[in-house]
## 1
Amino acid sequence: MPEGESVHIGWEVIDPAAVGASSTPVSVRDGEPFVRWSAAGGFMPLGRYLDERIELLRHPPERA
């Protein structure tokens, strides 16, 4: 794999019709979408998650 290429480990297809309060890694609670980065992590609002990911793309940590 070329250096810098994205790798998706343990990915899974998400069925939008099956997303609910107890689904993972995406859930909907009180009408708001939430995501969980890893099985050990907690859920965070989708908007905050996307903001964080975009910021990391725009300003990656040194030597990332």
Note: Residues 13 and 25 are 10 Å apart (CA to CA).
## 2
Amino acid sequence: MNQLDGGGGAGTSGGPPHLATAPAKKKSAANTIENELEPDTAKAAKVADAATTAAVGGFEGWATAAGLKTVETTWDNQVKNLLARLASEKTALRGTAVAFSRQELDARARIAGVRPTSSIEKY
């Protein structure tokens, strides 16, 4: 015990840090992804596609058109990957909030089921 510095860990007794979760913040982050990031990303992709398509048409017959078409295909794939990642993160945030809530309810139910023994029960 003499080796403990008394200030270690996040717990007040120098024990391990406490597990903390913020369901409201997870929900807010998931909503931001759904209502802002996903739509804005899709909108930006369409603007870039329109500009690139116009440029490809302007350079028709030149090697530049083929290069721009390759860039457009790469861009579209990256946008699809980003949107899939955002959707995955949104789902994970919402799932984590639900999982922690279930875990907390389960722990409360188990604790509520434990009764202190009474000295009357000896008889």
Note: The chain is about 70% helix and 0% strand.
## 3
Amino acid sequence: MNRVMRHTHAERTVRAAVSVSAVCGLALGLGACSDTVDGAVNQTYEVTYEVTGTSADEIRFHGGGGKAMEPEIETVTSPALPWRKTVTLRGIMPPAVMPAASDAGAADLACTITYKGEVIEEMTGEELLTSGGCVAVSPVPD
């Protein structure tokens, strides 16, 4: 019986050592990961939004204000179409432009988001109306 107790004590010691090693490794890994996230969050990038069609009552878009995961939404009412705007966003903030129209002309609305000359998101007609607009993933490299 005494021998079983020693074996159990030894197992606890080994488990404790493994746990401490895992926690230390995780802490070091998260420290390095934290630096990467901080760098990505502070990086800025430009996108250009474009909305075309017959008419729109308003255009809502992420203009760069607010927090990365809670961006402030800017609104342009009664915009002349075609409408175009270049904005600077930060980090993992998703680029988004959401045109809205209440009349029959809404069916011909289209939106695009362009990054470094390449269209990264576009929606037209019914697809645009059901999705609520163009929303893309931040192009900031991870």
Note: The helical segments are 2-42, 125-131.
